[in-house]
Amino acid sequence: MSLKRGASMAAIARLSITDALSSVGSTAAGLTSQEAERRFRAYGPNRVERVRRRPWLLQLLQEFVQFFSVILWVAAALAFLAEWSSPGEGMARIGYAIVIVILVSGIFSFWQEYRNERTLAALQDLLPHQVKVLRDGAISQSTVEQLVIGDIVLLGAGDHVPADCRLIEAFDTRVDDSTITGESLPKARDAQPSEETQPLRSRNILLAGTSLISGQGRALVFATGGQTEFGRIAHLTQTGTAGISPLRRELVHLSRLIAILAVAIGLSFFAIGTAIRVPFWQDFIFAIGIIVAMVPEGLLPTLTLALVLAAQRMAKRNVLIRHLTSVETLGSATVICTDKTGTLTENRMRVRELLVGLERLRANVLAKRPDLAERQRAFFQTAALCHSLHETERRGARVLLGDPMEAALVEMGRAALPDLGSARSVDEISFDADRMRQSVVYEAPGGRVLYCKGAPESLYPLCRHISELGAVRPLDTATRAAIVEAQEDMAERGLRVIAFATRSLPDVCERSTFEQDLVFLGLVGLEDPPRADVPEAIAKCRAAGIKVIMLTGDHPRTATAIAREIGLVQSPDPKVITGAQLQSLSAGELHFAVDAPEIIFARVAADQKMRIVEALKAKQHVVAVTGDGVNDAPALKSAHIGIAMGMTGTDVAKEAADVVLLDDNFTGIVSAIEEGRAVFQNIRKFLTYVLVHNVAELVPYLAFGLFGIPLPLTPIQALSIDMGTDSLTALGLGVERSNPVMMRLPPRQQNERLLNLPVALRAYLFLGVIEAVAAMAAYFFVLRGAGWHLGQSLAPTDPVYLSATTACLSTIIVMQIVNVFLCRSSVRSILSMKLTDNPLIVAGVTLELVLLLLINYSPWGNAILDTSPVPSGLWLFVVPLALGMIALEETRKWLVRRSLPDASNTAI
């Protein structure tokens, strides 16, 4: 019944109407109801399966088994094990706190992504729900899902095509197939057999998901559901994969590094304890305490909250983040593969240039030239009257339905001639794909007038005169050459050129001779204009070292002209590869081609877009792809970051994407990349901040194990820093504002680690050591002040011991208050940054000070954390230590600034 995919479309396009009907077992009267029912049962509904989604429960559970979450689960289990072996040590509270951390962080992350999915769930289907179908020789309404191969459907202007069809009758039929092919201009369609080598471009084929913008026709269904081109692309979308995001990859690496380090230190001291004959359970609990101290329990919730807040900031810029880690992935992008229509351009036709007679002028000067409209009235009458649009009312305003190009011409004509008079249409010669022109006859007070528009090459041979400066004269060779030169100049700049002509018809005139002896009126150059702010966005990408590649289904000349206008192409001879050329390239040749500094891909198909993305990924690029059509979906899914258009984008594209631009504004991509770059740097900032206090928590355990002093910091106190006092300040570092200077630096290297050597040295061996020394100094300050001496043991409830551990905890908190301002930049001085630039840090510091007072001087704070008020002299002892930390870090930053370029000095 149906031919194989790939051969079927080409084969049925070549057949005559009779043979086409016969090839699918149908007739001109359509199928019988019984046969249609039989085929429906045999082949199923005409429905394209939506992109698969994981059940929400599975998505939620997955949030709790990320590698870092697994580390925390292990830490919690060890805490519970320690509590079981030695009850009353407070380890159970640590275990419960860690479990709460995992649950809250996972639910936060899941809820953000689930909410974004719900935002897109309300989008309507691209395919229509009802269609007119011919069955049993009669026209009836049917649901789209009930269509079967062999059905004949009736389509008119504005209708969506419900399945892949072959036209068997066509009347002035033009189709917008940009959602499938990516080409922005409407295409004429007819019912004649086609010898086109590329089936998608056959003149008698209508594809599911496209729409008629003018005319009407009858079409034979030859493919339904997953066998349509629409369905094939949906399948490509489901099978495409982008792999793990850079941020998730870095978090896995960081988690493994911290886990290895924590376990190695814990086992080392367990072995030392065993060697010096420490009791097993005491030694085991000590090792667990070290491991728990080394794991930054607050890192995961802080990271999640930072990504959520970044996503919310981007949502205010109309950038919807569907997957949280996509925020940072954007900042890693090295290449953006962008569609043209609706992404770089406005997806609407606009008159840009005119040749009126022989006068060249820009369309925007018409308002200043009212004399021109009167002297060349016929030119603007042709624009306003020669069309096949339908006018209707929407929300109290009159709108034109049909070809956007015709709508642009009518709007220009009506603007120039607000009063068109009382002429009425009496005849029309519809647009024909062979004639490439359209003529409309109006009855005017002076007689019948024909207005004609069409492709210049189809009108030139019919013109014998030209209207110039209000006078008509013969069209000589020199004038024809000047007109052709103007046409070619417009075409070279990517404009779609339409010629206008007219003629006064005699009282007696055969219809077949209407389009003869025409008077040439002029040319109109139309464009799908670039978005006004796209050139600036392209310039920012270039400055940021991000390569932008145009992937479009449009003509190479049109694509090149637009690329040059927006600054995407600056060289005189950019590399342009068409879909046909791409098809003949081997994988190695394509890998070599994408290295070109300026490259454009034109006339490319869906699977070819995905092939380009895969080639770039193989070259170790982090690839972002923008798109709005069904044809873009496989590439969106395959790329590291897929960016769909929210207003003009299809449902399939939005579901395949990681990011949706709600206002279709390309500049949103630049803002998102800037935000993504800031996210990576901010993660480093709060990672440094967290690791510093981890060192300060670890050193007391080491001192306890090596020198036999009373444990300076209890496990529950260490956890109170991770999950209490430092939580809001760490989050403040995670949402630092992006620095515009960062967009003048190249993308970070893919092999650049989140926790690299400079970050580790600064956190572990510099700031961490300073903070640990200060904490231990405060601990001994209280002990020595109370008369303690080395070797003296203290009971866990001894007021002196409680006050000393409180001093250690309080000093870490004070040093972290200082440290949060130091960590705002790894190179910039704190004097160059306003304290009030980040309200969340100010709020976090305020919270730390309040908690510091509660920990020291409130009964419930003392009870929960086993603390006791510290001597008043401690605060005077700690202040010089905090100032010393600032002085040492500022000295280090000054030395680093001397060795870095200016841009890096101000960006990080």
Structural account:
Helix 6 runs parallel beside helix 26 (about 715-725), helix 9 runs antiparallel to helix 10 (about 280-295) and helix 11 crosses helix 27. The protein is elongated. The chain contains 33 helices and 26 strands. The longest helix has about 40 residues, at about 665-705. It folds into four domains: about 5-50 and about 130-160 and about 165-225, Calcium-transporting ATPase, cytoplasmic transduction domain A (Distorted Sandwich), CATH 2.70.150.10; about 245-320 and about 675-745 and about 755-905, Calcium-transporting ATPase, transmembrane domain (Up-down Bundle), CATH 1.20.1110; about 330-345 and about 530-670, HAD superfamily/HAD-like (Rossmann fold); about 350-380 and about 420-525, Calcium-transporting ATPase, cytoplasmic domain N (3-Layer(aba) Sandwich). The strands form four sheets. Strands 10, 11, 14, 15, 16, 17, 18, 19 and 20 form a nine-stranded mixed sheet that branches. About 50% of the residues lie in helices and about 15% in strands.
